[in-house]
Amino acid sequence: LEPDKFDHSYVIKEKGKGREFSFFHGKYQLLQSTVDELNAIAAEFYRYEELAGYVLNAQHIELDAECEYEDEFILTAKPDLITADSVLVDYKTVNEPRFNANWFWQATNNGYDLQLAHYTNVLSRNNIDVKGWRQIIQSTSYPYNVRVVNFNEHFIEKSMQKWEETMAIFKEIYNTTYDFKLAVETVGYAAEEVIADNDLDCLSEIL
Fold first, then answer.
1. Which terminal residue of the chain has fewer beta carbons within 10 Å of its beta carbon, N or C?
2. Any residues with CB less than 8 A from the CB of 162 and at least 6 apart, and which?
C-alpha cells in the first residue's frame, strides 16, 4: 500500500525462480522481474483515484494495536488501513485473474469475517471507532484487476457475533486444558458452526 516504503525494502538478486524471496541484512532479496511485477500491481492499484485517496488520506496505515481481553489475554491486531471516514480496509491479493462475484463465500470460508471482527474489537478497545468494513481484492495475474467489496451491516453484525462465540469457545477450551495450541486448533473447527447467514450478497462496488 505504500510504494515509497517498498522502494527501500529490497535489494536485487541475480538468480532465482519466480517470485521467491529471501532476506539479506533485513531486506528482501528479489529478482528484477519480481520487482517490475510488484510495481505493475501497485501502478494498477493507484490508477484508481478513489483507492489512492484511501491511502493518501488514511487515519492509520498498518497500525499496531493491542488490548487486554477480559483480564486473561492480550489481543493484537495490525489492520491494513483505516480511512479518513473510519472505514476499516483490508487488502487481499488473489491468484485468480477473475473473481467470484459472491465474495461473501470466500470471505467466510477464509475467515476474513473473523479477521475484520477481531480488528474491530481490538481497535474499539483502543478508542478507535470503526464505521464500516471494506476489502480491496487485487489479482496478482496480469492485468492485475482490482475489486472493492463493501460489507453490509447485517454481515458485520453476524461476524461480530461469530467472533464473540468463537472467543467463548477458545476460553472454554483453554481454561479447561490450559493448552493454548489445542484451544486455537479447536476454534478453527468450531468457528464453522457459528458461521454467519449464507444468503448475503455483500459485493456492492466493482471497479
1. C
2. 113, 114, 117, 191, 194, 195, 196
- Sheet containing 132-139, strands listed edge to edge, beginning at the edge strand earlier in sequence: 60-61, 81-82, 87-94, 132-139, 146-151
Question: Look-up: residue for cell 478453527?
Answer: 188
CA distances from 126 to 9, 158, 193 (A): 30, 22, 29
CA distances from 179 to 73, 158, 175, 183 (A): 14, 28, 8, 6
Contacts of residues 193-197 at CB distance under 8 Å and 24 or more positions apart, as own/partner, are: 194/161, 194/162, 194/165, 194/166, 195/108, 195/162, 196/108, 196/113, 196/155, 196/158, 196/159, 196/161, 196/162, 197/154, 197/158
Q: Hey, what amino acid is at 154?
A: H
CB 148 within 8 A of CB 205: yes
Provide the residue count of the chain. 207
CA 96 to chain centre: 17
Task: Specify the residue for cell string 460489507.
Answer: 151
d(CA 89, CA 137): 10
Amino acid at 176: T
- Among 42-51, 89-98, 168-177, 179-188, which range has the highest average pLDDT? 42-51
More confident residue, 122 or 29: 122
C-alpha cell at 134: 471494506
Pairing of strands 27-30, 10-12: parallel
Q: Is residue 135 within 8 Å of residue 112, measured between CB atoms?
A: yes
Report whether 103 contacts 59 (CB < 8 A): no
